[in-house]
Specification:
Largest sheet: 7 strands, mixed
Radius of gyration: 14 Å
Structural class: mainly beta
Number of helices: 0
Length: about 120
Amino acid sequence: QVQLVESGGGLVQPGGSLRLSCATSGIGFSIYSMSWYRQAPGKQRELVAAITSAGSINYADSVKGRFTISRDNAKNTVYLQMNSLKPEDTAVYYCNANHPGNLLLNYWGQGTQVTVSS
């Protein structure tokens, strides 16, 4: 059974930091590309950051220089360090696992709420 469990969300003031974690089980984590998406109320889900099995990384322009994605293959976990948070970063953040050779092997976590507000 595949599970992706996000944690680390919460309420933070503008300029603050949060670290999201996504613990996985039931997949060959090391070969999967891992991504973080977010969805704000009334908006489409958007890609925030992604990291491949080889360690290649890309970010949305809106978070470059503020967010850092990383992975620990020994712990089957992907992280998103979020610094200098802004109110517009408020959203539900979702973890995604995608097998590079099989589009059918695509999994989502349940999401974790991040709220940036004073």
